[in-house]
From TrEMBL:
The chain crosses the membrane at residues 47-67, 79-99, 106-123, 129-150, 157-177, 197-218, 239-257, 263-281, 308-330, 342-361, 368-386, 392-412. One of its GO terms (molecular function) is transmembrane transporter activity. InterPro entries: ABC_transp_permease. It comes from the Bacteria. One of its GO terms (cellular component) is plasma membrane. It comes from Kitasatospora camelliae. Part of the binding-protein-dependent transport system for D-xylose. Probably responsible for the translocation of the substrate across the membrane. This is Xylose transport system permease protein XylH. It is a multi-pass membrane protein. It is found in: Cell membrane.
Amino acid sequence: MPKGGVNAPVPVAASATPAVDPRLIVQQEGVKGYLGEFRRRITSGELGSLPVVLALIVIWAVFGSLNSSFLSAQNLSNLSQQIVGTGMIAIGVVFVLLLGEIDLSVGSVSGLCAAIFAVMNVTNGVNQWVALLSALVGGAAVGFIQGFFFAKVGVPAFVVTLAGNLGWNGLMLQILGTSGTVNLPGNDIVSKLYTTIYSQQIAAYGAALIGVLLFLGSALLDTRRRRAAGVPFRTTTDIVLRTAVVAIVAFVVAYTLNQYKGLPLALLIFLIFIVVLEFMLRRTAYGREIFALGGNIEGARRAGINVAFIRITVFMICSTMAAVGGLFNAGQIQSASQTSGGGNLLMNAIAAAVIGGTSLFGGRGSVWSALLGALVIGSIQSGMNIEGLSNAIQFMITGAVLLAAVVIDSLARRTQKAAGRA
């Protein structure tokens, strides 16, 4: 019998103490509380983007020490363009991974949609904007078909998209016809989207300033909304520090780009896609339903979430982004051919999403993962090309980095479960 009688309260175990909102800790303890909360998140397995940022720093330091041209403005500017196609596809993969599923057809879909644009515009003389829209609609239609078989018929996503990987590749070959290759003229919209560079320095610095102001405005708006609702909010000091970090990164990138040719339009479009889709994931009911479905499908169903609708639309987003990525890849090489969407594009897109920090187990990740992961893979490829290393070594190192990312994700989940936070 507990000391003090039958009705005496039983002590609660220390491990059952509810977590305190970090915003409240910062308000009460300032910088000390912020550092303490950071240590707690690391020890409990909530690593976020920290591993991939550290990996990117190490990769750049290693290749920069081996060859100074790696960190040159020219190479970094070229790298920012080269990752766009794979990065766009990786954005769509992030959405599917958040559900805890996989899409193995994104490579073929990207090639198919590039072929649709090329054949319609170049071979048949269709208006380039109509051809572009048709390619994007084609990607969305592919996603709807695959999502329908997964969500309504009950075929596993792995099987549906594996079949799609073969089927859409065959359809691409059929559309291209006997020639097998359709060259883009270079003055078409797809080529211009990739090759256009704004040489005026104000373009890069202006884009950096707009990005910083949007970040600051979003943070202030979120704080105002939370303050009005009576829930913990970020302090002014916290917002200022975060904005300062974003500003430093943004203006360093702008300065580096201006040291070569200027701001690539492809990179700007890539960043716009990331910001808009990240906002949709974090700030809308639809985005929260995606996270809920990936975290606990049965709980999401009981909460009234339309599971089939979410699944179908997520696969549509994934295939549409594959179409966007395929068009940028076609603009890079200025052609659509039988090899479009092939090679290691599929693996690189999935690897970019996972390496960037999106969990393979669903329910945890960010659209920014596509950028970070694509930067890691692109940096490895760029550094090894400068050093003259073979593709075989590139594949092995990229595979090792992917494995390391999955291991870190698995260990982080195990740590979170042990800490009672998963």
